[in-house]
Amino acid sequence: MSRTLRLLLGTAALLASTALARAEPVTLEVWTHDDEGEFTYVLAKEFQTQHPDITVNIKHVAFADVVNDAMRAYTTGSAPDVIGIDNPETAMFAARGVLLDLSPYVAQSQVIKLDAFYPGPRNSATWDGKLYGIPRASNTLALYYNADMFKAAGLDPDKPPQTWDQLYQAAKKLTDPAKNVYGLAFSAIATEEATFQLLPFVQSAGADYDSVGSDGAIRALEFWQKLLDEKLASPDTLIRGQHDSAGTFNTGSAAMVISGPWELPDMSKQAKFDWRVALFPVEKEGSPRASALGDFNNVIFKTSKHPKEAFMLLEYIYSQNHRNWNDFGLLPPVQDAKVDSPQWPKAYAVFTEQMQYARPRGPNPDWPKISKAIQTAIQSALTHQSDAKTALQTAQATIDRVLKK
Amino acid sequence: MTSTRTSQSMTDRSVNFQPAAPAVRAPSPYPPAGGGGTREAPSRRALARIPLLRTLRDGSGFDVVLVLCAVGYLLVFAAFPLAYTLVMSLQQVDMFSLASFDRPFAGLDNYRDVFSRPEALQILKNTVIFVVLSITFQLSIGFGLALFFQQPFPGATYIRGVFLAGWIMPALVVGAIWKWIFAGDFGVLNYLLTSLHLTGGKIFWLSDPDVALFAVIIANIWLGIPFNMILLSVGLAAIPRDLYEAAEIDGARAFRRFRHITLPLMRSTLGAVVALGIIFTLQQFDLIAALTQGGPANASNVAQYWSWQMSFQTYEISAGSVVAVLMIALVILVAALYVRSTEREHAA
Question: Do A248 and B184 touch (CB under 8 A)?
Answer without folding.
Answer: no
